Amino acid sequence: AQKVTQAQTEISVVEKEDVTLDCVYETRDTTYYLFWYKQPPSGELVFLIRRNSFDEQNEISGRYSWNFQKSTSSFNFTITASQVVDSAVYFCALSEAGNAGGTSYGKLTFGQGTILTVHP
Amino acid sequence: ETGVTQTPRHLVMGMTNKKSLKCEQHLGHNAMYWYKQSAKKPLELMFVYSLEERVENNSVPSRFSPECPNSSHLFLHLHTLQPEDSALYLCASSLLPNTEAFFGQGTRLTVV
Questions:
Q1: pLDDT tens, residue by residue, B33-75
Q2: In chain A, which residues have their Cβ closer than 8 Å to the Cβ of B3?
Q3: A97 — contact with chain B (CB < 8 Å)?
């Protein structure tokens, strides 16, 4: 069974601080996909990044960066120079491919989420 | 605008009521999902529809009944719910396996 663990339940920082959100996963699949989503107070989950298991290159997008380390089964997310608008719940997720009746589909296993609060 | 629209945004219902949640996507996706988000628990996958066929039902009680009349619409019919069913219900859609899912804003359900 797949499992995603986000050990940090809540993180509180002051604006302009850097913050790293940890994610550790378990899977028996050799091919899998990892995701990060942001959930602002409005409720919808906003997609941030997708990474497949064969691509361990780190990625940077503006103030966001992701560190994928297959050896430790981790996919950590760093926000540089945090801002108040970054306050949200952040979810790490692992995709498992399902197959039924010849139809393939994806289903996500989510971590419990990390509540990030950035104070002005 | 995420491309996935859920209505209503908020719903309060009694335990004897019958109500339906609606989800609509115009992204051309062929898979749609219902997730339940309760306080202090991870998001739980409830149902998966792929090409309008239900392909997964994760041991969800029969008081929740999904319906997918076409590839753009997904419903969740509710009847005789319990207070512990109060949660945020999120709809999502995706195009291909292992591609990102796009989520709606959710329906905040309160059962009284």
A1: 999 999 878 899 999 998 888 877 778 999 999 999 998 999 9
A2: none
A3: yes
